[in-house]
UniProtKB/TrEMBL annotation:
InterPro entries cross-referenced by the UniProt entry: Peptide_deformylase, Peptide_deformylase_sf
Family: Belongs to the polypeptide deformylase family.
Names of required cofactors: Fe(2+)
Designated name of the protein: Peptide deformylase
Any Pfam family matching the protein: Pep_deformylase
UniProt-annotated binding residues for Fe cation: 106, 148, 152
Domain of life: Bacteria
Recorded name of the encoding gene: def
GO BP term, pick one: translation
This enzyme's EC code(s): 3.5.1.88
Cofactor binding summary note: Binds 1 Fe(2+) ion.
Source species: Chitinophaga lutea
Length: 192
């Protein structure tokens, strides 16, 4: 089932999410719905707060990006083959490498894309959908998507990384999003 995506301005997007246990009600159904919602919205990642659930859960499919690189971009992310993965109760263990800028967007902040600088690599501890624990290091565009989705479960948004002047310039657009004065081709709910 395709779930509505929560728009900028909703309090759930600013909450630090809670860990969950395997007994979380209808967890597999929620994960399936998040995948369906993400793909229906043309996203490459989706965090539970974006579907109004303040829990530490997100899904990432960076294979879509890697598999759709233009011919002249194929060497842009060496060794990054992309992933399609569920992250539960994730915690960043370490980051490393030089920061690099990339134009990010967010399904909860439609029609705004801005350069955000993030480290090259992220080491993260998480559980998969079977609650098996993992600790892995990701790099390239996969690390980028993980950082972005991880921020959601920490109550952060990519616009928080922008310089104050840039944020002021975007204020009108952000206000329009929070008031529902925007048209998107996927289901959204707006703050009241």
């Amino acid at each position: 089932m395709i779930l509505p995506i929560v728009a900028y301005g909703a309090p759930v997007l600013r909450e630090v999410s809670q860990d969950i246990t395997p007994e979380y009600p209808d967890l597999q159904k929620l994960i399936d719905n998040m995948w369906e919602t993400m793909y229906a919205s043309n996203g490459v990642g989706l965090a539970a707060p974006q579907v109004n659930k303040p829990i530490r859960l997100f899904v990432v499919d960076s294979e879509q990006i890697i598999n759709n690189l233009e011919e002249d971009e194929t060497n842009a992310y060496p060794g990054d083959h992309g992933i399609k993965q569920v992250f539960i109760n994730a915690k960043i263990v370490d980051t490393e490498g030089d920061e690099w800028a990339y134009q990010e967007g967010c399904l909860s902040i439609p029609k705004i894309r801005e350069d955000v600088s993030r480290p090259e690599k992220v080491k993260i501890r998480y559980m998969d959908e079977n609650f098996k624990q993992h600790e892995r290091t990701f790099h390239g565009i996969t690390a980028r998507v993980i950082f972005h989705e991880y921020d959601h479960i920490e109550g952060k948004l990519f616009i928080d990384y922008l310089k104050p002047l840039k944020k002021r310039l975007l204020k009108g657009k952000l206000d329009d999003i929070s008031k529902g004065k925007i048209k998107v081709d996927y289901k959204m709910t707006f703050p009241r």
